[in-house]
Amino acid sequence: MIHNLHVIKRQLHESILEHLGQFPAVALLGSRQVGKTTLAELICRQRPGCIYLDLESTGDRNKLVDPESYLARFEDKLVILDEVQRLPEIFQPLRGLIDRGRRKRLAHGRFLLLGSASGDLLRQSGESLAGRIAYLELPPLQVSEIDDDQQDLLWVRGGFPESFLAAHDKQSLVWRQNLINTYLERDIPAYGTRIPAETLRRFWTMLAHNQGGLLNVSQLSKNLSVDTKTIARYLDLLVDLFLVRRLMPWHSNAGKRLVKSPKVYIRDSGLVHALLGIDSFDRLLGHPVVGNSWEGFVIENLLNAAPFNTTPGFYRTSNGNEVELLLDIPGQGLWVIEIKRGMESKPKRGFYQACEDLEPAKRFMVYPGHDRYPLGDGVEAISPKLLVEQLLALAR
């Protein structure tokens, strides 16, 4: 088992370097404790004279009272600004510094910005730095970044490095429960969002129980005794913090009656299990969430590996034709992906009927093993890691 995060090669590392070689600024986004700072520090050590500022530190924020004067001294160095959403007013001065640098032929690799919330950060940086910034998301650890025999461990504990690398399951669970508490009691209030921590915890736990289920705003509203607009606000907040994913229904076939509600997944399987008090692989296998947890785990890994501008979705008709994941990949066509937990599972009839509706370019069934083999009717059984690697190869 790997015991040191610094020896885990993150698949995004090379992409960050490539984007720094092309753009003046690169924003590296992702949830808290996902490894952004560790990766940025590694990049900083590779760049002579690199400057690192943590904007949660009062001392570092004070250095930026006059950001143009301070940062102008490092125009030929990489400057890393961690937790940049804490200082949204920085984006306008960065624009001036970048534009002056361009006139001196300092056209790329100036700033690496790390952020833990997407909505406001994307809007504010996009307005000020349009054409000057590229965005990358660092997810939790993925199956492509670990050994083959650690797949179940990654599924149970999730991909937050401190959780995955814990000495034992209990330590891992305690770490995740503390992360949840930190979000509820410190991080979310720090974004200026006034939501009772216990109410948001109940909402988050309801999503865990309904992992991969259709979004039913009215039922959630009834269960929490709040209005539907409040439910929408809670969900938007967790999506913005990279904690929840909405998977949208596929609506390309006008001749079918299709489900219109999105499916909702807590993005890290380890957080699903922590919210439900599942502390081990054996407990998970005996829990009703096991199938939907595996589905969410696979979907998250595939979406994080999919090429840029891939459009994801799911397909479900009123009469039960269903595909858990569709990927419309530029230049590759539509891939349909069935996800099964059993080693001997086969796609159901509804999957094949959905394939008749969709006429996909490729058909896969992801299962928990480590190989790939044909199932007939154009369907290939494949492990999560092998399909992730196939998607990553397309993205290169």
Describe, in short, the structure shown.
With about 400 residues, this protein is of the alpha/beta class.
Proportion of residues in β-strands:
15-25%
In whole angstroms, the N-to-C terminal distance is 29 Å
Q: How is the largest sheet built, in terms of strand order?
A: 9-10-11-12-14-13
Provide the low-confidence segments as ranges: none
The overall pLDDT, averaged over residues, is 91
- Largest β sheet strand count, sense and barrel closure: 6 strands, mixed
Tally of alpha and pi helices: 17
- Rg is 22 Å
**Counted beta strands:** 14
> What is the count of distinct domains?
2
List its salient traits.
396 residues; alpha/beta; Rossmann fold; six-stranded mixed β-sheet; 17 helices
Molecular structure report:
This protein has 396 residues and is an alpha/beta fold. It folds into two domains: 5-137, P-loop containing nucleotide triphosphate hydrolases (Rossmann fold), CATH 3.40.50.300; 143-395, no CATH class. 43% of the residues lie in helices and 17% in strands. The protein has 17 helices and 14 strands. The protein has helices spanning 13-20, 36-45, 58-62, 67-71, 91-103, 119-129, 151-157, 161-164, 169-190, 197-209, 217-224, 228-240, 269-275, 281-285, 290-305, 349-358, 384-395; strands spanning 25-29, 51-54, 79-82, 111-115, 133-137, 213-214, 244-247, 263-266, 311-316, 322-329, 333-339, 362-366, 372-376, 379-382. The strands form three sheets. The protein has a six-stranded mixed β-sheet with strand order 9-10-11-12-14-13.
